[in-house]
Amino acid sequence: MSSGNTTTDLTDGLSNSTAAQAPEPQDFALTLLLRPEYLSVVFSALAIIWLGAHGSLRRPPSAAPIKTKKGKKQPKEDKFAEGLAASDAIMFPVLAGILLISLYYLIEWLQDPDILNKFMRAYLSIMAVASLGRLSGDSLDILTSLVFPSNWVDNKGTVYHIDSDERHQYVVDKVTGQHKIVKDRISPLPGFLSVLARSETAGDMLWLVRHLLTEEWTVKFAMHGLVFVKFNLKLNDLLGFMISSPFAAAYHYLGWNILSNIMSAAMCYATFLLLSPTSFGIGTGVLWGLFVYDIVMVFYTPYMITVATKLDAPIKLVFENNKSVSMLGLGDIVVPGMLMGLALRFDLYQFYRRQIKLEPVELVSEILTEDGTKTTTTEVQERRVKAPFVDPQGQWGNRLWCTKFGSLFPTKEASSVWAATAFPKPYFYASMVGYTAGMLITLTMLLVFRHGQPALLYLVPGVTGALWVTALARGELKDVWGYTEDGSLDTEDVVVDVGPDSKAAEKKGEDAKSEGASQAEMMRKESKERGAEKIEKESYDVFHFSISAPRIKYLKED
Length: 558
Hints:
By secondary structure, the protein is of the alpha+beta class. It has helices spanning 28-34, 36-55, 88-110, 113-147, 200-214, 235-254, 257-274, 280-299, 303-310, 331-353, 396-401, 415-421, 426-449, 456-473, 477-482, 503-536, 553-557, and strands at residues 7-9, 82-84, 151-153, 159-163, 168-172, 179-181, 216-223, 227-234, 275-277, 316-320, 325-329, 357-368, 374-385, 543-548. It is globular. It is found in: Endoplasmic reticulum membrane.
């Protein structure tokens, strides 16, 4: 990824060392418009970052966990596999340099880059299967949400909710807050699409398809005495992996640029979901460390240009026409994109932070005086109550069906859709503007000097400058600097400023004791069931692999 950390343009067959007369400044814009490969680089990078940043959205520490229906398990929250620390500002450039120099001398030693290209294509094709599978699965989720949304709005502004478990649509009474079932809506399709399911049989079939596509499936794999793996995923995830395998094989044998670009985009997308700086300070430090690395490797060594041009693998975006080739290394997307994804999550954090309410709570405590008597005191304090989190994943179909014609935003009545997709994004948009400006300056330098440019030379100041200037202009420098995703901000909304003998503290202890007892009872019950199963079942599975579809409620009741 780091080896392609540059933007290179081989214009009209000129070598990188050939001097060329620079075009006039007024011709820059016209040249960019007439060279579609330049615009393709900019739009592709922005699209990948936009998708990756939205895919990385998680519950911010300023929001309460998702409320689930009675009888349903609490969904497991995704966490980043790796959070960058302050030391990574030094380690990233060092490791990237070691990798880049190793690839350069390996290419020089082999004399034929095709040998290394074949190995790299095979290796990265296998590695990209998981990334492409995740991107394909999430894309299918978006398509599914367009057909089977959870909410939609009619011409009168009435918000309809679709309940897959109960297999009906309902509206919420604005006065009483009660659910009113809409009897003439027998299918899970929204709006005008409901005419496709006039009969009860067609409606049942659509409810079944919706259930299978939106609910989680269970995958189990076990080898006796060695391994047992159990995890949940959606049908779209399975379909995504089925798509990714032949796609990766096609790239390995054909090597087309369009296939390489799609796989490169998928690896960028997966990186955004797994890797993130812990704070804005750490993210800025990592970017500026790689800023220095990029300048040194492009301007003062032959390593970057040589590896980027000779290595044919999905580590860069490549756009070409009959006369020129324009390339952008994945590092120029992932490195600033990680900080831009953090900016979007900070926007979501600020959105829920503004919704925190303070509720008065009366604390009663008993104080033992010197003469042995107890004095009861009552104190009124405030408790911070967070708004419940609305998962933004799979909400784009809801946004489409809850947005009236001619409007860009969903109706205010669809509050959950608004919270998930239309929350204010000042920091993310500022970083997008900074990234776009950096890319345009990079392309301008290519036209002027006809030489490969270190894109991070222009992208890092553009992105970091846009973020910190926005924080200064909004008077939120302290909030931006103090924001962290290490878990320290995710505190419970309880009042803790009470005495050791207070009734609040005693109640909390009793709850913990009760919870411990219930867990112990559950463990005894499970142990008893396992023992009975062991006695009843004389044989055991040596090898087991299964994929279980989600149980349908109405069939279970029958």
